[in-house]
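Lab channel / #folding
Pinned by the channel admin:
"Please post every new chain as: sequence first, then the structure tokens as a reply. Keep commentary short and put observations after the output so the thread stays searchable."

First post following the new format, from NK:
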Amino acid sequence: MRRLPEWPYLIVAIVAMLADRLTKFGIERLSTPGFEHVLIPGMLNLIHTTNPGVAFGLFAESGSPLLSPLLILFSGSVIVFLIWLLTTGRAGGTAGKTGMALILGGAAGNLLDRVMRHSVTDFIDFHLGTHHWYTFNIADSVIVAGSFLVLFELLKDWKQAAEEKA
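Reply from TO:
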């Protein structure tokens, strides 16, 4: 079977990162922190907030001067690892490669925020009534979508391996 070139996956990563950066640029330029606008009543708001911590606001209140450099180092390491997986053909099949490319693009988008501001700009406030999800951004969304694609491929491969043993 002919192997697809790896560069299309790097383009997916770049497009994901650019989508994240453009949307963050828009919210940062057109509003101030604390801004809130209802898009769909009872479901979706556009807000402008920042998160110096990690996912779900973990460690946001730590105040440690080491937090930002550690997060930058960790994110940079993940990005290098994902690039290595994608460029060496070790990232699996199409779903896995696409998923890793999305994770790469999202991680790069959030890393740029951390390098420039020592925090990440979030602006999507999804909720059902009074039950709010954590505020997130496009980078977070593509990381989650990419994770599902990688998990899908892993489960598919696991099922095929189990069927071959049977």
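NK: The chain has a mean pLDDT of 88.
TO: also worth noting, The beta strands are 36-40, 44-51, 120-128, 131-132.
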